[in-house]
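To assess whether the prediction recovers the assembly geometry, we first specified each molecular entity separately, as shown.
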Amino acid sequence: KQEVTQIPAALSVPEGENLVLNCSFTDSAIYNLQWFRQDPGKGLTSLLLIQSSQREQTSGRLNASLDKSSGRSTLYIAASQPGDSATYLCAVADSWGKFQFGAGTQVVVTP
Amino acid sequence: ETGVTQTPRHLVMGMTNKKSLKCEQHLGHNAMYWYKQSAKKPLELMFVYSLEERVENNSVPSRFSPECPNSSHLFLHLHTLQPEDSALYLCASSQEIGRGHTEAFFGQGTRLTVV
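The predicted structure of the complete assembly is given in tokenized form:
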């Protein structure tokens, strides 16, 4: 059974610092990995989707890498801002497109 | 706005009530999902529908009853719930099942409180 782990569970950084969020998964037979952002009490907003054949994906200040063989993905957020404060979730999809989620990393960016 | 709309946003119900959650997507997707998010726990997949046919029932108690009348709408009918069922219920859609390369889009969720 696929297990997804996110470390750290919580992170607090001053504004301007780069954020590094980690996601690991136990079964490397994934079809894609997706990073989401969730604000308190709200739904999930898709940030980046990395296909299994890709090694990284970029969008603005966000960059996500994928090392399928070692079961790891990292989300980098450059020059963090208070508006980046949220919980970040990673999810891996199997061949049916069903997602298994990690518990998330709660990020606080202080002004 | 992700293209997936859930109503209501908040719901408080007694244990003997019957209520329904609604999800609607305007993305032309063929697959729809119900997830449950409890405090401090990862999202749990409850049900998966593909082209109105249920393809996954993840050991969910029968007090939760899904319905998918067409590929754009998904309901979750609730009856005789327990306080531990209080959670954020999230609906998602993706282009189709069986093609793992597709992106999932989520609604804003329904915050359910069972009293």
